[in-house]
Specification:
The structure is a single chain. The chain is of the alpha+beta class. The chain has one domain. It has helices at 5-13, 22-25, 28-34, 121-126, 145-148, 158-172; strands spanning 42-59, 68-81, 88-95, 103-106, 129-134. The protein has a five-stranded mixed beta sheet. Helix 4 (121-126) links the parallel strand 4 and strand 5 (129-134). The longest helix is centred in the C-terminal third of the chain and has 15 residues, at 158-172.
Amino acid sequence: MRPFFPALVATAFANVAISTTLQSVCTLSYVKQSLPSTSLGVTINPASVVVTPVTNASVSGQAFFPSAHFDYCGVIFSYSHDGLNDSVHVLYWLPAPDNFQNRYLSTGGGGFAISSGTGSLPGGIIYGAVAGTTDGGFGSFNTQSDAVFLVKNGTVNLKSLYSTCSITKHTTN
């Protein structure tokens, strides 16, 4: 994964005018036209784009962010690295336009976890950031790298190791 790809996606959504409503930007057509059209070494699968507006979501009792009620636009899509036969899924939560502070929060796991699921995403939304996570190309947001580290013959799955390292490089910058 290119280190700047998620930031580019977040920037594409940053062009929303403050007077715009969540309902007007949280549509399939708006999201598809906002996704980057340049290659950057990846190809977005336009048929994979799913857009879901969520209103009055709430969280409480979290250690890393305050209790809150919030609205967001959930966006999921997949892309592949040019020249590889892979598929990486990403999930972004976009804050309501009037709450957006031109920020991006990338969440991840620890140890062998490539993703923490959606547990950390509200923190981004609460603070006005686009928040995102990935499956790292492992096939689901719940699959961890230890599950795909070895291939059937017991050798290291270098493709999965490369995916983990390139994504980890992004999330730690």
